[in-house]
Every structure is written in structure tokens, then in C-alpha cells.
Design brief:
- The chain is elongated and about 50 Å long.
- It has one domain: Up-down Bundle (Four Helix Bundle (Hemerythrin (Met), subunit A)).
- With 142 residues, the protein is an all-alpha fold.
- The chain starts with a helix and ends with a helix.
- It is built from seven helices and no strands.
- Helix 1 packs antiparallel against helix 7, helix 3 crosses helix 5 and helix 3 crosses helix 6.
Length: 142
């Protein structure tokens, strides 16, 4: 089975759109402003969730096309991408953590700590690094 370039590229585009919104939040708001603004919480939560899910979808698509690679969970997707040399170890570790944070956003939304959300906004570069590594793989693959 072959990797569908259109699926990957559409998820990368969605990721980029989310990152623009998230970067806007951190460029235009202090932590104090962020913590007291429910609208910013909503924007940050939703876009972090979609950014994480886009990466999960990309990874799952790639992993599912590889023989014998059946991920056991979202974090396992990134481990398999690392083991096959598609992403590096620091990216694997950070993306696994993001997959866990995505689960909190989706399932434990009543317990969200917005200081942690704000802290996650400070490390958006991991998404950029992930996208760069996926692009290198895809363009070398196709």
C-alpha cells in the first residue's frame, strides 16, 4: 500500500493554519492576559487539539502503510515513526507528550490547567520540526 500524498499534505496545511492562530495568541498576549481570557482558552484548546490530531493522523497514515506496523496508541505512532527513522528522537519524545496532552484536552476538559496550556504554546516549534521531518520523508518517498 502506498502513502497518500494528498492526505498528508491536507493535514500539514491544517497544522500550519492552527499554528498561525496559536502563534498569534503568544505574540499578542502575556501569560497573565491569557490566563484571564476564556476566549483565548477556547482558541488555544481547540487549535492545540487539532494540531496534535493532525500530527497523529499523519503518523497513523504513514505507520498503517508499513508492513507489520500496528500502533497500540497515539504515543506508539510516534515511536514507530522514530524507529523507522522518519522522525528523530527529540521529536518522538515531544510528540508523544503532545499526544498525551491532546487526550487531556479531549477527555479531561473539565480539569484543564491553563498554565500548562500556555506553557505548551511556548513550544510550538515541535510541530514545525515534525512537519519538516514528515516533508523530508514524503518527498524522499514519492
Amino acid at each position: 500500500m502506498q502513502i497518500n500524498h494528498d492526505i498528508i499534505m491536507s493535514r500539514l496545511q491544517r497544522l500550519e493554519n492552527c499554528l498561525l492562530k496559536l502563534k498569534n495568541i503568544i505574540q499578542n498576549n502575556s501569560k497573565k492576559e491569557f490566563l484571564k481570557n476564556d476566549d483565548l482558552h477556547d482558541i488555544a484548546e481547540r487549535n492545540l487539539q487539532i494540531a496534535a490530531q493532525s500530527c497523529i493522523d499523519i503518523g497513523n497514515h504513514i505507520v498503517s502503510k508499513q508492513k507489520g506496523a500496528f500502533p497500540e496508541g497515539y504515543g506508539d505512532i510516534f515511536r514507530k515513526l522514530f524507529e523507522t527513522g522518519i522522525i528523530d528522537e527529540p521529536t518522538y519524545i515531544k510528540m508523544s507528550n503532545i499526544a498525551g496532552f491532546r487526550n487531556i484536552l479531549v477527555h479531561d476538559y473539565l480539569k484543564i490547567n491553563y498554565e500548562i496550556v500556555f506553557d505548551n504554546l511556548q513550544d510550538l516549534d515541535v510541530f514545525v520540526t515534525f512537519a519538516e521531518q514528515i516533508n523530508r520523508f514524503i518527498h524522499g518517498e514519492m
